[in-house]
Write a structure and sequence with these properties.
There is one protein chain. This protein has 6 helices and no strands. By secondary structure, it is mainly alpha-helical. It folds into 2 domains: about 90 residues; about 90 residues, no CATH class. The chain is flat, with a radius of gyration of 21 Å.
Length: about 180
């Protein structure tokens, strides 16, 4: 049996175990929710979450990263909207969920393109990813959360997050530089 065949067989086994685990998790939630409340109430959250997780993770098991990214792009906003509708205090989707999801989706597409098409050291790619996540994505999402909660921005939180991500990005860049120098 070739390595490719072994990987394909392992992927199928992982898929079956993962799918059965998802079904079991949903079943347990439904049974417990019904046993406690005599109706299905809070189980909607894990049911929707497990369904989204299965939709996104299944292509990853088979190495289909583009399909997983497309599934995330298509499914995340309807998922958040459904969660918004089943929560007792809805209406956070438009003000918080949608903007944060869009920022995250754009970030993941940029990272995908970076790792798929840019021909540089993988450590540099990781450094760029950390930089974008810490300096762009995290502050944007913090802004949306602060705006939604109508709280003043915590500049200590922003600064701490940005500088810690910059430090990790710099470390990754240095490792990439050292490794590229050793290869010469």
């Amino acid at each position: 049996m070739s390595l490719g065949e072994k990987l394909q067989k392992a992927s199928k086994i992982i898929f079956m175990v993962f799918t059965l685990s998802c079904i079991l998790a949903v079943g347990v939630c439904v049974i417990v929710n019904y046993a406690v409340n005599q109706q299905i109430t809070w189980a909607a959250y894990p049911i929707l979450s497990v369904a989204l997780g299965w939709l996104v993770i299944t292509p990853l098991i088979f190495g289909k990263y583009m399909i997983a990214l497309c599934a995330t792009t298509v499914a995340v906003n309807p998922f958040l909207y459904l969660i918004d509708r089943v929560t007792p205090d809805p209406d956070w989707f438009c003000k918080l969920g949608f903007p944060c999801a869009i920022v995250g989706i754009v970030f993941f597409w940029i990272i995908y393109a970076l790792f798929r098409f840019v021909k540089i050291n993988i450590w540099y790619k990781a450094a760029i990813s950390m930089f974008l996540g810490g300096v762009v994505v995290s502050p944007l999402n913090n802004y949306f959360v602060d705006k939604f909660l109508q709280t003043e921005p915590s500049f200590i939180n922003y600064i701490t997050n940005i500088f810690s991500c910059l430090a990790v990005a710099a470390l990754l860049w240095i490792v990439g530089y050292i490794r590229s120098r050793k290869q010469l």
